[in-house]
UniProtKB/TrEMBL annotation:
The gene is pdxB. This is Erythronate-4-phosphate dehydrogenase. It is found in: Cytoplasm. Belongs to the D-isomer specific 2-hydroxyacid dehydrogenase family. PdxB subfamily. InterPro entries: D-isomer_2-hydroxyacid_DH (IPR050223), D-isomer_DH_CS (IPR029753), D-isomer_DH_CS1 (IPR029752), D-isomer_DH_NAD-bd (IPR006140), Erythronate-4-P_DHase (IPR020921), Erythronate-4-P_DHase_dimer (IPR024531), NAD(P)-bd_dom_sf (IPR036291), PdxB_dimer_sf (IPR038251).
Amino acid sequence: MLIVADENIPLLDSFFSDFGDIRRVSGRELSPDQVRDADVLLVRSVTQVNRGLLEGSRVRFVGTTTIGTDHVDQFWLESQGIHFCAAPGCNANSVVEYVLAVASLHASRRGLSNWARQSVGIVGAGNVGGLLAQRLERLGFTVVLCDPPRQQAQFDGLDEPSATEFSSLEQALECDLVTLHTPLTREGEHRTYHLLGAQELATLRPDQLLINSGRGEVINNADLLARLQQPDAPTVVLDVWENEPNIDPQLLQQVWLGTPHIAGYSLEGKVHGTETIYRALSRFLGLPVRKQAGQYLPQPPLSKLAFTSNAGDDAIQQALHNCYDPRRDDARLRLSMAGDEQQRAQAFDRLRKEYPVRRECSSLKIQLKGSSKSMGEQFRSLGFKVNI
Ligand SMILES: NC(=O)C1=CN([C@@H]2O[C@H](COP(=O)(O)OP(=O)(O)OC[C@H]3O[C@@H](n4cnc5c(N)ncnc54)[C@H](O)[C@@H]3O)[C@@H](O)[C@H]2O)C=CC1
Ligand SMILES: O=C(O)C(=O)[C@H](O)COP(=O)(O)O
């Protein structure tokens, strides 16, 4: 069996070499010729998987080690009887930690003494948005969820009956922090392409923070640039951009923090993505599942942080920054944006390819001296290991 795989998928040999030969390719530049004689195609978000790529090939199974599926023409694959599998939720925790780190830095920057007094509008309450809502609520934030497809499903009795209350996009956009976690969809009643355009962006106030770590095209980037050039602009953080890797350098200059689509790039998130597709391929081939992510995730050297009883929110915020500080990724991106358009695009992809190992909050052990039990619970709810 021949497996053609994006060279940026981690642990390809560990998980897939028992199935057959692996041909590593550049996902961004994959051509029909490179995949024609393959049985299995494994991709990340940068490969457009469609008729143009696969017509006439031998491929019977396509796996993407990502949550997002907007790069895959699933309708065409199905019409050809090609099995498709994605990795829902694989890096959701990584994205949640990214958003919490950003929110915490923003609070420090604004000198907010109690960051949880803020309201957070979450647009898209699926694996990422739902997990984020849980964490924020435990920390005491007021959370407003906007998810019209789930709201509709709840109304139709199709979604799990729960106490979840959904709000409109307008209500979410009134919150102190607004964070986008929808898939990119271009059709249908709830399509998200340019969900935020000039009209929606005009409603945002200068004291608000808007974060996009879903897909770039969910915000009209030209309208966003125009809005950011106004004196009453909100603060904006972008992990995802229209036209990646050709991002708009002017837009990067205007946002507070800009990162190269790495919100989901914790080591845990990446390895879980590979594991999910390994499992799916094993099932597809009728073979036993023998490997799991835990075998290949090196135990992180547990760093320790100590806090005393009077440490309030500061302690949680410090711990979050200690674990992951998005300002480093922002600085790397800004430094790499010299040169012409092609050089900038290559630099964007290089930052992603050579991304340093990032571990999640579970790699940090918090030592609390004389602190309350509830403080310990808050740390635990964020995934930290806690000693009281
Ligand atoms: N920046 C990064 O590194 C990463 C980005 N992502 C992006 O985040 C997206 C969300 O991930 P998950 O939460 O795991 O997906 P999910 O499929 O579990 O949840 C998405 C939610 O968005 C809702 N939704 C759809 N259309 C909507 C609309 N018009 N308005 C409001 N809500 C809407 C859906 O009903 C669903 O509940 C992915 O599709 C992917 O594009 C995911 C992982 C990493
Ligand atoms: O999982 C997703 O969806 C993502 O956006 C990925 O984290 C993006 O990573 P690449 O597939 O582009 O490496």
